[in-house]
Design brief:
With about 130 residues, the protein is of the alpha+beta class. The chain is built from 4 helices and 9 strands.
C-alpha cells in the first residue's frame, strides 16, 4: 500500500497535502481498497464551506456508499471535476490524479490534529 510521507492523514481515511496557504484533499489508498471499485463521486461546489469531521461528499462503490469527511474547516476553492466522468481514478491513482478538493483552511492549526504517514500506518494496521 502506498503512503506518501509528506502528506497528513485523518482518522476517517482522507489525505491532506499542504500547498502554501491551501490544502489538497483526497482519500487514501487504504480507503479506496476497502471500498472496492468506485463508480460515482459526489463533491461540493467551489465556494462551499466544509467543516472538520463533517461530510463534504460521498464515494459510491459497487459494495457501498461511503461519506467523505472533511479533515479541516475552510472554503472549497477548487474541485476535481474529472472524477465525475472518471470515478475509477480514485482506485487507479488515489494520491495523484484523484485528488478531490482544494480548500483554504480557516484555521491552519487544525492540521496539527492530523496523523503523520507513520501514525496513519499504525492506525490502519492495528484495526
Amino acid at each position: 500500500m502506498s503512503l506518501p510521507e509528506n502528506y497528513l492523514y485523518s482518522k476517517e481515511h482522507e489525505w491532506v497535502k499542504k500547498e502554501e496557504a491551501k490544502v489538497r484533499i483526497g482519500v487514501t489508498d487504504h480507503a479506496q481498497s476497502e471500498l472496492g471499485d468506485i463508480v460515482f463521486i459526489e463533491l461540493p461546489e467551489v465556494g462551499d464551506e466544509i467543516k472538520t469531521d463533517e461530510p463534504f461528499g460521498s464515494a459510491e462503490s459497487v459494495k457501498t456508499v461511503s461519506e467523505l469527511y472533511a479533515p479541516v474547516t475552510g472554503k472549497v476553492v477548487e474541485v476535481n471535476n474529472e472524477l465525475e466522468d472518471n470515478p475509477e481514478l480514485v482506485n487507479e491513482s488515489p494520491y495523484e490524479k484523484a485528488w478531490m478538493i482544494v480548500v483554504e483552511p480557516s484555521n491552519q492549526s487544525e492540521l496539527d490534529d492530523l496523523l503523520s504517514a507513520e501514525d496513519y500506518d499504525k492506525m490502519i494496521n492495528e484495526a
